[in-house]
Amino acid sequence: MRKGKDAVLKLLRNGEPVPYRQLLKMLGVARGQERNRLDELLDNLLEAGEIVKLPGRFYALPGAAGALRGKLSMHRDGYGFVMAEDGNGDLYVPARYLRDYMNGDLVEAQVVSVRRDGKREGRVTALVQRGVTSVVGRFESVGRGGRVIPDDDRLGHDLFVPPNALGGARDGQVVQAQITTYPSKVRGLEGRITEVLGDVNDPEVEVLTVIKKFDLPHVFSPAVLAEASKEPQEVPAEATAGRVDLRERVTVTIDGETARDFDDAVSVSREGERIRLWVSIADVSHYVAEGSALDLEAYLRGTSVYFPDRCIPMLPEELSNGICSLNPQVDRLTMTTEMLFDSAGEMVESRFYPSVIKSHARLTYTIVKRIVVDADPEAIAQHRTLVPHLKVMEELALRLNKKRNLRGSIDFDLPEPQIVLDLQGETTAIVKAERNFAHRIIEEFMLAANEAVASHLEGIPVPALYRVHENPDPVKLKDLAEFVFSFGYQLTVEDDKVSPLALQKLLAEVEGKPEERLINEVLLRCMKQARYSAENLGHFGLAATSYTHFTSPIRRYPDLVVHRILRRVLSGKLAGKERGALEARLPETALHTSRRERIAMDAEREMVDLKKMQFMRDKIGEEYDGFITGVASFGLFVELVDLFVEGMVPVATLPQDYYVYLEKSHSLVGERSRVSYRIADKVRVKVAAINEARRQVEFALVGSLESRPIQRPVGGESYARIPIKGKRPKPRRR
């Protein structure tokens, strides 16, 4: 090879990717040692991040494959993913590039290579902001000092505590430690203990551990509480001036039995074949002034967080359960969306205005079901004056649901667990959370109101905050189409996109079939996560061209933002400099609130998993029926049918064989036995162990599964062989 590194970089400087064969020709590289030296040079430049490799063995300078910014999500084995803030997929980062970084860090990253299947690999190029400033975990004495074993095993480091920073902690206690030195090539993770939370098995300590681990603000400052306490708990007459008076309308709230903060109230009226709907939402914007201590705290929290035994509210109780909550038989200030629907469920008219209401009754989903579904004589007699209104609501909900289904809205009506606790906070049962038609009524009304507000703001148009759900990942879509084809189903993917109607049709076709659960699970894995955006990108799952969050301002900050925008539009005050300032601020608001929502979801999931794990502590050795919910190279994830508890069957405990992991077909296959384990397969398992550190229940398979012939890899899928005990069989030609 006549030239080296400088020559390669010069050839790539025009920004266009160059194929490998063209590099050989332009550099005058012959076969043999010269080509080997070029390959070594290219590998070194890739490792150093000076060039990137694209599909088809094209090479380019960094930037051609794209740069991104996002949160780093680490795996306990050391590798990680940068989750792009723009929602455009994740970037895989090998462990060798992550020694100086930690889970949760906000980073900038560069794409290094893109595989033919579209999956991207890269490296972190810059630290934007540390995501973790403190560590929660179990303290252990080491010499005169000690160490904290993090509750989050994704951090990848134990924290060393010097002798002068122990904070009085004793062996085995749960502590919080502030990080003083981050890991590097020459030093480990170091810190000082700032708080001793208590003993490991104390239920209150368990809750505190999750709160601290996810850095959830859970104590209101004196300034915030002072502002909240100033608000009267009754609506004064002067506050109703200029509002539409709906107090004489029959209006009700419908919520769960344990709900205490009532965001929304509904009312209906039949007008011939048409039905008019009023959705009145608590006017939180009247009480929380922009820029106030209350507002800044609500923005910081972003959302309320719900644990099995408590709620960490976005707003203090004086507001969330008091003057903002639409309690029965008292005046409340609201923002109302008034909509008129025809017999096909099409909205033909809408109005938006500040209002005052008086809820006639606080109904529960159970009561409404007893009236409209069960026709329970006792429930009907107790709420005789409300029954005609509830029947009209039922009819409207059916119309709206039918219309939504016709346009392709996708509903995953999967069962969700409900944790039952005793007075000491211990889990006594895990049952299926009830979801009945009364839930559907409120869901349809809230969806309609959110869509109406979004369409109104977009139609003006004004800057707004949208709830967006983008099209599924193109690569996963192609895999899904190939996967369902093996079952005899057709899914059309055009221009890397699929219509919601096509997915809805697929779900209808598989309903009641043996493969229904399997295809539902695989389809769910294709979906992107909904998020907030200042740009309207539509909502794929709802098949809605314009959608926002407006109906829960007590517990979601984005809804409060949308209320303020709507109020300004209605008063004619959103113009000029204020409009420009809003437009500049909304992208950051969307990023922050999306991030806070994900943190809340992770914390809620962790708390539920902890309660499930505790429930299983005394179940070791017991057998249960379950089904496979996930497959990985290291094992099977199994959910118990009756308990909604998920655990893992490690691959090392499977019957003696060599196992092939087929990623696209979501299965593990034994090369000798030809037995396959696939998502949705029914299995019988025994509780083998409780892994406290990983918050994980471990299962062992009982008996054997039905033998199934091995299918060829989907779409040319490669095999990942996992040797488990015994001699390796001879490889078969494929």
Automatic annotation (TrEMBL):
The keyword Cytoplasm applies. One of its GO terms (cellular component) is cytosol. It is found in: Cytoplasm. It catalyses: Exonucleolytic cleavage in the 3'- to 5'-direction to yield nucleoside 5'-phosphates. Keywords: Cytoplasm, Exonuclease, Hydrolase, Nuclease, RNA-binding. One of its GO terms (molecular function) is RNA binding. Residues 621-702 form the S1 motif domain. SMART domains: CSP, RNB, S1. Its EC number is 3.1.13.1. GO terms for biological process: mRNA catabolic process. InterPro entries: CSD, CSD2, NA-bd_OB-fold, RNase_B_OB_dom, RNase_II/R, RNase_II/R_CS, RNase_II/RNase_R, RNase_R. The keyword Cytoplasm applies. It is an enzyme of class 3 (hydrolase). PANTHER family: DIS3-LIKE EXONUCLEASE 2 (PTHR23355:SF9), RIBONUCLEASE (PTHR23355). NCBIfam families: 3_prime_RNase (TIGR00358), RNase_R (TIGR02063). 3'-5' exoribonuclease that releases 5'-nucleoside monophosphates and is involved in maturation of structured RNAs. Belongs to the RNR ribonuclease family. RNase R subfamily. This is Ribonuclease R. It comes from Geomonas limicola.
